[in-house]
Structure formats: C-alpha cells, structure tokens
Design brief:
Belongs to the glycosyl hydrolase 47 family. InterPro entries: 6hp_glycosidase-like_sf, Glyco_hydro_47, Glycosyl_Hydrolase_47, Seven-hairpin_glycosidases. One of its GO terms (cellular component) is endoplasmic reticulum. Pathway: Protein modification; protein glycosylation. One of its GO terms (molecular function) is mannosyl-oligosaccharide 1,2-alpha-mannosidase activity. This protein has 598 residues and is mainly α. The protein has a single domain, classed as Alpha/alpha barrel (Glycosyltransferase). Helices cover 41% and strands 10% of the residues. The chain is built from 17 helices and 19 strands. The protein has a 3-stranded antiparallel sheet with strand order 3-4-5. A 3-stranded antiparallel sheet has the order 6-7-8. Strands 13-14-15 form a 3-stranded antiparallel sheet, with no helix packed on it. A hairpin with a 4-residue loop joins strand 7 and strand 8. Helix 13 runs antiparallel to helix 14, helix 13 runs parallel beside helix 15 and helix 15 runs antiparallel to helix 16. It is globular, with a radius of gyration of 24 Å. It binds 1-deoxymannojirimycin. The site of 1-deoxymannojirimycin has 8 residues, from loops.
Length: 598
C-alpha cells in the first residue's frame, strides 16, 4: 500500500479546513458581494485607516500603472500603446465572422456520427461503429451516456429534428434506477453536465432540470465518507457510494475536484444549498492539505481527507483539478477569490517544477513527477519527460486564465496587450501559446493525428538519434511490433479545445487552420463509411487500424469545439459561459451564497 503523501512532503499540520458559517448574500447587506447603496458603516472610521488606504492606493498604482493608464489616456486623448505580446503576428486583422463552409462540414460530421448511433444503438451508453452495435456501462442497463452528452451540441448546431428525437428519448426512456456501479465523476461531467446545459439552452425545458436533479440526488450519498471527499463509484439504484477496490479505495484528485461546476449550477437553479456545500467542502479539504507549490498528487484518501503519495501530473487523474480551479472562479463572475488564489499558486508551481523544454527545437512541455523510494527508505521525486494528450487542454486554459485571473483591466483587448496583464498573466499567456505549438507538433505523424502519450527527449535517455526523432517520440513504437497503448488516437478533444480558446482570445486565423488540419485528419482516418467514427490504434501507421469504439466525447467535445472554432464569435461568448470539462457550456452567474472557506 502506498505511503501517505504527508510522509513525503512536509505538509501543513492537518487542521480543520477554515470553514466559516455559511451566509446567504442579501442584496444590500454589508458583507455580501453586492453591497447596496443603503449599507451604512456601523462604527467610526479612524483617520489612521484613511491614511493607510491612501498609502496603499499609491503603492498599488505604482506597481500596476495600467490601472490608471487607459482611463488617463482616454481622458487626455493620448493614443493607446500598441505593443503586442511576443508570438502574436503584427499584421493580422481580428476576424470573428463564421467560416461557414468549414463550420457546416463539422455539422455534417456530427450528423454522420449521431445518425449511425441512432440507427444502431439509440439509448445505449456507448457506440461501436464497426460492428454497428451499442453497449452499456454496466449490466444494469443504460443511463443515457451518449444521448445526454450529445443533446446540447444538437441545440448549438441548430439540429432541430435530431434534438427533438433525443428529447423524446430522454422523456420516455431515460432511467437512473440502475443497480450497477457507475463512475461518480464521469456521470456528473457527461450526463449531469449535458442535462444542465440542455436545460439552459433549450429555454429552460424543465424535463432536463428534473433529470439532472434526480441524478444529483442519487450521487449525493457518495459524499458520505469520513472526510467528505466523494467515493469513485456510485450504485444509482441503491443510492450508495462504492469504494474503488482497484485503487485501495483512493479517489483521483481530478475526479473529486471536477464535480463543482455542475453541482454549483444545480444549487443556483434549485436554491438547494446541499448541492453547493458538498462540492465546496471538497475544495476546502483540498486547500487545507495543499502543498505550498499548489501541485496535487493524483490520488486522495477519502477516509483521511489527504493526498496520497502518487504521481503529480497534468494528465490523467490530475488534469481537470487545475482546469476547475480557474473555472470555479469564472463561473461565479470572478467573485470567489479563493479559487483564483489556488489557481495562481498552482500555475506558479507548474512553471517552477513541471515546465520543461525538449532537446532539439526546445518545444515546451509539461513533465510529470513520479515518487520513488530512495535507498534510505525515504521518497524522492523523479521527473518523467512524458506528456499525455490530455495535457493539451492547458494551453487554452492558461490563455483564458491570463485574460481573467491575470488581467489588470476588466476587459482585455483581443489579443491582450502586455500592459493589460500582470506578470503572471503575461507568463501564463506565453506558456499557453507555446504549449499549443507543442501539441500541434505532436500531430506530426503519418496520420496527422496526435498520440495518446508523447515522450520528450532528454540528455540522459541514451536513445540513439537514428531510432527516435530528436524532440519527441512514441515510447515502445517499433517497426513490425504491435503498436503500444501510447500510439492511439481515441478522438480526444483537448488540442482542439485549446485552439478554440486561442482563436477567441487572439482572432489569429492560424488557430482555425490548425483545427481544420486536425478535422481533415479525423475525416480521413477515423470516419467509418457506413456511419460513425472510430479510434485509431496507431497514429503512425497508414492505412490505419481501428478500434471499434466511438467515445461519447467526440459528440460532446471534439465536434462541438470544432464547430465553435469556425462559428462566429457571438456564439457562446467566453465572458458569459464557462465550459465544463466535457464541453457543456454553463452560464456564468452571480453567487447567492458566500464562499464557505478561505
Ligand atoms: C473528457 O471526458 C473530459 O474532457 C475529461 O476531463 C478528460 N478526458 C475526456 C476527453 O479526453
């Protein structure tokens, strides 16, 4: 059994998370975010405080001159400086009109996938396009995994007929009364997230909210653990949390910390605090046991409420922990500063420890840390130069974070100017741009598709340059040998997600070009002529071999982000929506309760 995380890094003493008495915000109350004009101070304001305030103001303006620069320039008619961030071409014209031909080609692809599923497997959880069959996650029957994950894409793409048929299926057939063990995280992000967005985008069709709420109520018992961290699995019929025996009962950090957008939006819609409190408590616990560098190991112990010794990575089991730090801050209109602090700390930790460069062309990548026992019985950390495809979400996320958490002004320009960003914002922006370039470089394969995992060359790897390329390679790939697991492309969306964000934040057409190239590679190598799309077993082998599976995130994420990349930028604007980790857009709202921890 692995040692505890606390045995390896000096943890802050395990104390009760700083949970404060929860207060509803009453408009006009002096402790809410929306203080009304009628709020009166209750005691005199000593002069010394006034003096301190002036000194602080002067110091702040000295440090962040951009706070006054723009208004001053406007007043004096001084032209704004036009300095651009490095990496942004000086000659591009921001254009946000739709590229209709490409956008419509993506809609056609969605129909090709959905119609095949509808024909062969309607209502089944997953689809196998080569055998033309469907399958369910458990033997207890389907829970609408594919349907719920796809509905909002139909609404966004304007596919009225498909939407009506899917809605009818939800109304007549969707049941969560299934006596099987389902993954808490997956059904939250795919099904609950899908239903909540369908509710919002359908003009508040109550069918979707009722179903989302029913699912949430069946999931709630997973939070009844000693710590309050939810269990990995849930029996939906019995309404019972089930520990994951495969991982000693530990839970992935990403899984416990990627339920928050969905449960918080449900709490907002229903005015039921329980949904909010359960997921916020998870964040309070994780903050209380966090390391100063803000990096999280990929497993937590739901009994003890602390991190377990396990790898630190931005790939599987770690990724969306970081994604949701930023997105929780954005979801509630940038009012919950504790999430911004956690996000900023984590991004600095990533830069200090995990950001590395390849040997030859110095491609920037995000490495992993693996714990290892040393001779003396203590534990050390080994840097592993490996990057999951999943990490490619981080490029766009860093750019989005730079323009929000890292912004000095309310609305940054498109693209942002350096004087609109904090030092951290500028650093994150540049890393985001570079990481997207690296993710694009990993598409330099025979198929033009990126592998599941890329390894980067380091001095000490002892690999002969004639055997592996100078920058990155697919580990275990050898001529004539069976393709390693790392060589697959399973229709993942992360690079495309980043391209969509980068395009919206810069207007640089190269991001559309990149997206179009990936889309064409998917069309060429993953499209099954009889309908549907399938995963590819080896991105470096043409003609390809397929795996008989179409992941639901092709419909919810990959094709949705491609559509949005080519749609005009008024569709789902980034300042009004926050996308859950499965690409279900949820509206930004002003919270009606105060954050319960700090
Ligand atoms: C999706 O289910 C989600 O994006 C999740 O956060 C991670 N991976 C898949 C897609 O790759």
């Amino acid at each position: 059994m692995p040692a505890t995380y606390s045995s390896l890094l000096p943890l802050a003493a395990m104390e009760e998370p700083g949970v404060r008495q929860r207060k509803k915000i009453v408009p006009g109350s002096s402790d809410g975010h929306q203080t009304g004009s009628g709020a009166k101070p209750t005691r005199a304001f000593p002069k010394i405080y006034g003096l301190l305030l002036v000194v602080m103001l002067v110091l702040t303006l000295y440090q962040f001159p951009a706070l006054v620069k723009s208004p001053l320039n406007q007043l004096l008619g001084t032209p704004e400086p036009t300095r651009l961030l490095p990496g942004i071409p000086t000659n591009y014209v921001p254009t946000f009109a739709a590229d209709e031909a490409k956008r419509d080609a993506v809609v056609e692809a969605f129909k090709h996938a959905w119609h095949a599923y509808e024909r062969d497997a309607m209502g089944d959880d997953e689809y196998h396009p080569i055998s033309h069959t469907g399958s369910n996650l458990t033997n207890a029957g389907g829970i609408g995994y594919t349907v719920a994950d796809s509905i909002d894409t139909m609404i966004i793409m304007g596919l009225e007929d498909e939407y009506q048929r899917a809605r009818t299926w939800v109304a007549d057939n969707l049941s969560f009364d299934r006596d099987g063990n389902f993954n808490t995280f997956e059904i939250t992000i795919r099904i609950m997230g899908g239903l909540l967005t369908a509710y919002h985008l359908s003009g508040e069709d109550s069918l979707f909210l009722e179903k989302a709420r029913e699912l949430a109520d069946r999931i709630l018992p997973t939070f009844e653990t000693e710590s309050g961290l939810p269990l990995s699995l849930v029996n939906l019929a019995l309404r019972e949390g089930v520990p994951d025996r495969d991982n000693y009962g530990y839970v992935s950090t990403a899984e416990v910390a990627t339920l928050q957008l969905e449960f918080r939006y449900l709490a907002y819609l229903t005015d039921e605090d329980i949904y909010w409190d359960k997921v916020e408590n998870v964040m309070a616990i994780l903050k209380a046991v966090a390391q100063p560098h803000g990096l999280a190991t990929i497993f937590v112990d739901p009994k003890l409420g602390r991190y377990q010794t396990s790898p630190i990575r931005l790939g599987s089991r770690g990724d969306s922990y970081y994604e949701y730090l930023l997105k929780q801050y954005l979801q509630t209109n940038q009012t919950e500063l504790v999430y911004r602090d956690m996000y900023d700390t984590a991004m600095s930790g990533i830069h200090d420890v995990l950001v590395k460069r390849g040997l030859s062309t110095k491609l920037l990548y995000i490495a992993e840390l693996n714990p290892e026992r040393t001779g003396q019985g203590s534990i050390g950390w080994r840097l592993v130069p490996k990057q999951d495809h999943l990490v490619c979400f981080l490029g766009g996320s860093l750019m989005l974070g730079a323009t929000t958490s890292g912004a000095l002004v309310d609305h940054v320009s498109i693209p942002p100017r350096p004087d609109e960003l904090t030092g951290q914002g500028e650093r994150d922006w540049l890393t985001g741009v570079e990481l997207i370039n690296t993710c694009m470089a990993t598409h330099d394969t025979q198929t033009g598709l990126a592998p599941e995992i890329a390894h980067f060359r380091i001095e000490s790897d002892g690999i002969d340059n004639s055997v592996a390329p100078a920058d990155w390679y697919i580990k275990g790939a050898r001529l004539g040998a069976p393709a390693p697991f790392d060589a697959r492309y399973i229709l993942r969306p992360e690079t495309i997600e980043s391209l969509f964000l980068a395009f919206r934040l810069t207007g640089d057409p190269k991001y559309r070009d990149y997206g179009w190239a990936i889309f064409q590679a998917i069309e060429k190598h993953c499209r099954i002529p009889t309908g549907g799309y399938a995963s590819v077993i080896n991105v470096d082998q043409v003609p390809v071999e397929h795996e008989d599976k179409m992941e639901t995130f092709l419909l919810s994420e990959t094709l949705k982000y491609l559509y949005l990349l080519f749609a005009d930028s008024s569709v789902l604007p980034l300042n009004e929506y926050v996308f859950n980790t499965e690409a279900h857009p949820l509206p930004v709202f002003n919270p009606t309760i105060l954050t319960g921890f700090s």
